[in-house]
Write a structure and sequence with these properties.
By secondary structure, the chain is an alpha+beta fold. The protein contains 27 helices and 32 strands. The strands form 8 sheets. An 8-stranded mixed beta sheet has the order 6-5-9-3-2-12-15-14, with no helix packed on it. A 5-stranded mixed beta sheet has the order 17-18-19-21-20, with helices on one face. Strand 20 and strand 21 form a beta hairpin. The longest helix has 20 residues. The protein binds O-methyl-L-tyrosine and zinc ion.
Length: 857
Amino acid sequence: MLDAQNAAAAPAFIRREDYRPPDWLVPDIALDFDLDAVRTRVTARLTVVRQGAHDRPLRLDGDGLSPLSVRVDGADAAGWSLEAGALVIPLSGDRAVVETVVEIAPDKNTQLMGLYASGGLLCTQCEAEGFRRITFFPDRPDVLSRYQVRMTADKARYPVLLGNGDLTGSGDLEGGRHWAAWTDPFPKPSYLFALVAGQLFANRDTFVTMSGKTVDLAIWVAEADLPKTQHAMDALKASMKWDEDVYGREYDLGQFNIVAVADFNFGAMENKSLNVFNSRYILADPDTATDLDYDAVAGVVAHEYFHNWSGNRVTCRDWFQLSLKEGFTVFRDQCFSADQGSAAVKRIEDVRVLRAAQFPEDGGPLAHPIRPDSYIEISNFYTATIYNKGAEVIRMLHSILGPEDFRKGADLYFDRYDGTAATCEDFVRAMEEASGRDLTQFRLWYSQAGTPKVRATIEGDTLILEQSLPNTPGQTNKQPMLIPLRLALFDRATGTHAGEQLELLDTPRKAIKLPGSGTRPVLSINRGFSAPVLVETDRTSDDLAFLSAHDDDPFGRYEAMQQLMLDTLVAAVRGEQADHQPVITAVGNTLANNALDPAFIGEAVLLPSEAFIGDQMDRVDPEAIHRAREALRTDLATALAGQWEAAYHAHAAARFEYSPEAKGARRLRNVALGYLAAGRADEAGALAFAQFEAADNMTDRIAALGTLANGGAAERAAALAGFYARYKDNPLVIDKWFSTQAFSARADTLSAVRALRDHPDFTLHNPNRVRALAGAFSMNQLHFHSADGAGYRFLADILLALDPINPQTAAKLLPPLGRWRRFDESRQKLMRAELERILAAPGLSKDVFEQASKSLG
Ligand code: 0A1
Ligand code: ZN
């Protein structure tokens, strides 16, 4: 804990350039856990080996631990000390066996890092630096050890005892206790250690690998949740097969276990052969999970499974290399999901996430390259930049090299670095060697932060491409990037083009002669979102309308419609005369196009979010944006009333089905419901309530509830109350009940979220619940940015209350307050005042300190 007023106590920056290989290695560790929620005793026996010629002592990281015993080679150790939580032991020889005993209190562990209690379970979370809260250890990813783990626990309370690797023994003990021993043959860093103990029930299955080995699969949950695990199991098996087919990577142990827990800081964790999941990414059935939830379950199950190679077999040398495993693994899970359903819609969703979460980060005070140069608290770097921009960087490599050379590069990388801790540079070099291409300039994507801007204009018979990269904290005067741009030039008369080309823009400006027919072509650029850049063009609204109807790249078609909508909305917000007709015509044409996939239509006809409109403006005016968007929404609703009606009825289903077609139909139907409600406020309540009542699945039910929660219909209260009553025992669904109200555009939203803060079901101890209320509200641009600053205060109050309980999750709430530069002076002042209030709080965590101090900048 630190005092922000006192500069001497300000937490230190860790720098990438200071990396030094470990002084001591730990080839083997034996752990003995005497498990109990109140007091768990941990005995650790480490074989330590001096690395290189030096006389530095053994330094074992620890956080909140005090040793009950320290022994070296069987005798009580002398001369050890505790330094900033770490256990420092002078050792004379080059090899020793060091044994420590500590006691920890899982039920007091509210940070959910290390060993903690969730429901009746005991479970662990060690990434990034949680293992040091369990036992003394060199808690850094480049120390790889073979783990042998023995657990003892009360058999009635903790009948299931799970660890990494293979179960190598188990048995009963006196006094109702029992034990289990697990051995993991693969050396691993401490962040991949896990154990789980509790009353769990398994959905079991098997998978036969490409070399014919049978793997026992189990998904462990509370007994009542077993019926909700089949989708995750199907996704697991599909992922295992996909990694064999696409990357030639086979699973390497006889068992693969997944456990779902209710209290979890992130989405899930790839611990070797024992993945621990936030239950929201495992549990799904039609009554409680939406189609988006189903997709998220499959995507996260795949992500964690893929880490077995990209992360576990080849891990990271240090935490600055985090994107090595995360960017690559997100790219892999995105490709997997694209292969399971509509690749076009998946790409649209991925880009939407990137633009909503990563672009603002890249343009704000917390901007950092995908391989950062420094940090105060590594937990703050599990960001959209590391994950999602990191994935875009790998995707660009894939486009530049082509699938075959990319695969050769991946093979080389996995083979060369198997069993080691590698760097981003190692990955790029493997790609370079396998493909024979010089990636020197491409490496700038790893070191330069910020979203590049590309300007593309057609002047006469020349296409001119220009790039620039804005300054970001600590980085100015950047070098030009290598930007792969897929582009096509359409002939307006025929609606076709002569073929797509991949243009590698590697200079500040490039002029490309067009093959001339004389008439000005229509430019389709950054097709498939081939580079994570902002594109500005001189295309007219006619050009955009043309592309929205003719582009054969689905992303390009979507993008043209979005740009057309954005241009119209931004003009309206600026107070210019905004003609809605081009958008209405383009949306009408899209709705009428029977050749298009309904899932795609559902995405294409949606207006950009208020936040995304704000991102296009120099100064965000939340009220004006809301008004402009509502005006266009209402006009679209009224002018195309017949088509919305037709879409709504044409896509009704007799009963729930889970298939890409049925999902697409639900998507379009619910988008149509939104427009129908916007156009006929008087009847909207009845229509939405009828759907709410009749729905046989969560997608339709929550879409109707969202529509009702947003408006003033008489049915609103009954729907919210009915929903609560029906799902009061299901926390994941009650999260939706909280966030639906927090997202509402109604004038009373702030008082509603305040009341929800005091609702008996609200707790600061469950990260999902905190995110469902405070996280969701901070994304409600209209009300979070209410002019009197009450929204900012609400968020800061929750953040400050949460910080002593769970600093990681508290720090994640902060970034919306850091966007103050984007708003008017009065809001800037109010936002800064909250940041200053946060920074002045006594005992602030270093997690929140880092985010708040950087945000004030
Ligand atoms: N490696 C995990 C993400 C993760 C990171 C930190 C955690 O600590 C609370 C938990 C999970 C992933 O990429 O899925
Ligand atoms: Zn990951």
